[in-house]
Design a protein that fits this description.
7-stranded mixed β-sheet, 256 residues, two-stranded parallel sheet, binds S-adenosylmethionine, 26% helix, alpha/beta
Length: 256
């Protein structure tokens, strides 16, 4: 493989996650490289994973390399053709279209992608190739998971808050889960009465980040569709590298 091309995509590409490669790394919006070790993900030895909203595949890579997973199917709404990969209010569509086309680094790095036989800026496929990982990408939606069969583990990271219909999404995760499902909610809703354990959801009024969910709300939605033994794996904060402020998260696990 062309080392120069790999390095250029790592160093000059647009990345959601920080990914280390030899002595260099990507300029990700979020750097989970050390934090991920503290998130209490369980062993996934020999299990197959459905990584819903997989983006660049950082978590699939981690599950395969460090949690013992056998293979991962990464599913994402993003087609890497400049179309918007989130549900947004019609009013904000134009702004999001511009944002998406700016994020697409294919034109800038076309020669590098082509030299690796990659035909769009899909970083999941880039990581699969560069790190020789047992993972596959499929374009799709959390609302149509039935097309992709059952998986031992379903993982849905930082997606729920962007969905108009989180309840249907969790129901679909349940139907696709063989053993357990892990949901990481970003911008988790922390309220001052959290000791009362009330399941709360706050509507944000934003164009594509619809709700802030409390972890209790996610747990109740999971319980209502049938998940059992639901627990918080970790509450944490992660810095958004570009702006320097921290975003609260909550990771919840539920079993079949
Ligand atoms: C904020 S990123 C999260 C990336 C990664 N899962 C993580 O935990 O850091 C959300 C991803 O979900 C994808 N997405 C948005 N709507 C989706 C949908 N309806 N079905 C599947 N993926 C979706 C986006 O394209 C994006 O890659």
């Amino acid at each position: 493989m062309n080392e120069e091309s790999i390095k250029k995509i790592i160093e000059k590409g647009t990345w959601y996650h920080t990914v280390s490669y030899k002595n260099t790394k990507t300029k990700g919006t979020f750097d989970y490289t050390s934090l991920v070790q503290d998130l209490n993900f369980p062993s996934m030895k020999g299990l197959n994973i459905l990584d819903v909203g997989c983006s660049d595949g950082f978590f699939s890579k981690y599950f395969l390399e460090e949690r013992g997973a056998e293979r991962s199917l990464g599913l994402d709404f993003n087609n890497y053709d400049d179309s918007i990969a989130f549900e947004v209010l019609g009013k904000f569509e134009k702004d999001y279209m511009e944002k998406y086309s700016e994020m697409n680094d294919y034109k800038k790095l076309e020669d590098e992608y082509k030299s690796l036989e990659l035909h769009n800026s899909n970083k999941f496929n880039f990581l699969k190739k560069v790190f020789n990982l047992n993972m596959e990408f499929v374009n799709g939606s959390i609302y149509e998971l039935e097309k992709h069969g059952m998986h031992d583990v379903t993982f849905c990271g930082s997606l729920l808050e962007h969905l108009r219909d989180p309840i249907t999404a969790i129901e679909n995760l349940y139907s696709s889960t063989g053993k357990f499902c892990i949901i990481d909610i970003s911008n988790s809703y922390k309220n001052y009465l959290s000791f009362l354990n009330i399941p709360l959801i706050k509507y944000t009024g934003a164009g594509g980040n619809f709700y802030h969910h409390s972890s209790n709300a996610v747990k109740l939605m999971m319980e209502a569709v049938g998940f059992k033994n639901i627990k918080t794996l970790k509450n944490y904060k992660i810095k958004i590298q570009k702006y320097g402020y921290y975003i609260p998260h909550s990771i919840v696990i539920g079993y079949k």
